[in-house]
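Minutes, project huddle
Topic: does the predicted pose make sense with UFG bound?
PN asked that the exact inputs be recorded in the minutes so nobody has to dig through chat later. Recorded below.
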Amino acid sequence: MKVLVTGGTGYIGSHTAVELLNQGHDVIIADNLSNSREEVIDAIIEITGKDLVFENIDLSDADMCEDFFERNSDIDAIIHFAAFKAVGESVEKPLAYYQNNIFSLINILQGMEKYNIRKFVFSSSCTVYGQPDHLPVDENAPIKKAESPYGNTKKIAEDIISDTCNASKLSAIALRYFNPIGSHDSALIGELPLGVPNNLVPFITQTAIGIRKELKVFGDDYNTPDGTAVRDYIHVVDLAQAHVVAVERLEKNPHDQMEIFNLGTGKGSSVLEVIHSFERVSGEKLNWTMAKRRAGDTEQVWADTRYANEELGWKSKRSLDDAMKSAWEWEKKFRANEANEK
Ligand code: UFG
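Predicted holo structure (tokens), as shared on screen:
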């Protein structure tokens, strides 16, 4: 298939482009580089030994998006990652989030309708479950009021896609990610947050390498075994492979209604367990302290993965230790390259 990966120079998008190329698909990446670097394209080519097409465009711009589809009407499927994703920033700039995340989605779906492109995989999030009433949380759990405009864009997007599926020949899958971490084994691509990281794992690796003074563990009074919050951390390569399975499923069985799958490991880990895993695999001692809870955080969430395992035929294979090791290798390699460039 010829697959358009929007946001393909970003963290999950770049790993997915690698897995698509490895499986013999052709890849076009569309990304406006608002939170990523063009060097990622060279890294994807180096890892896979395959070529791809890159277009620097903003898909939330209707004219640009239309022009893109006019020139690329032979695309078979789209995996849509391009979106703003910082929870805190979305609270301060809600309109920027709705404008970017929702306009781009609508522009893409309109282009798909016009050029009869019918396969669509969407990057959603377990944030739609909020704090679930039951754990592990399955795909039929009620959707909670979003904690942030970012989370709301995921919820609204799922509704828009589902309505479009009902009204047209679009076949779509929404993948609800739990907490993606780690990087490709080559350490040539990985997670590269701009500025101070919000997420736990890049904060850990940046602290260990000396860019941050110490990690603050947000909350030790949760109702969890060690008092720190629990998440389902999934290796980004496992997650990327699920996208290939999803897009191939749409090729084999087109369907009328949007399908939804949880992408997690099925296992919850506390913040302290993540720190201990990091220390074990890196041999580093991490500087951390306990701090107050972070506003808006849920106490604990992990995935019921049975539906994805059985129906999608996909299962995560890599462990928390594997993910922490790869995150550390990536951080070290990236900073060494940065130092060489100076
Ligand atoms: N944490 C710390 N210290 C830090 C950063 C994080 O203790 O410096 C803790 C958090 O409090 C949380 C856990 O580590 O308990 C994981 O935090 P992340 O920020 O890495 O991930 P979240 O679960 O908060 O966020 C994820 C996705 C978001 C999504 C959100 C909502 O990254 O995109 O889940 O479910 F919106």
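Observations noted during the meeting:
- The chain is about 40% helix and 15% strand.
- The CA atoms of residues 26 and 101 lie 25 Å apart.
No decisions taken; revisit at the next huddle.
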